[in-house]
Design goal:
By secondary structure, the protein is mainly alpha-helical. It has one domain. The chain contains three helices and no strands. The chain starts with a helix and ends with a helix. InterPro entries: Zn_M74/Hedgehog-like.
Length: 60
């Protein structure tokens, strides 16, 4: 999995601080701009369904 060097260092430090038998689970690493845009749009659609009046309130 690809992550930025700074994040890799922080994850290594966090992992070293964990007690025995406990570990980290990284689910996602680097995401392309296109992937991030798709996630953002899907989440925005979910929020619009859940809170149908929010756009009108935010722009009022």
């Amino acid at each position: 999995m690809r992550v930025r060097a700074g994040l890799a260092a922080k994850l290594a430090s966090a992992r070293a601080a964990l007690p025995g038998g406990v570990d980290l689970r990284v689910v996602e690493g680097h995401r392309s701009t296109a992937d991030q845009q798709e996630i953002f749009e899907e989440y925005t659609d979910t929020l619009r369904v859940r809170y149908p009046g929010v756009d009108a309130v935010a722009t009022a």
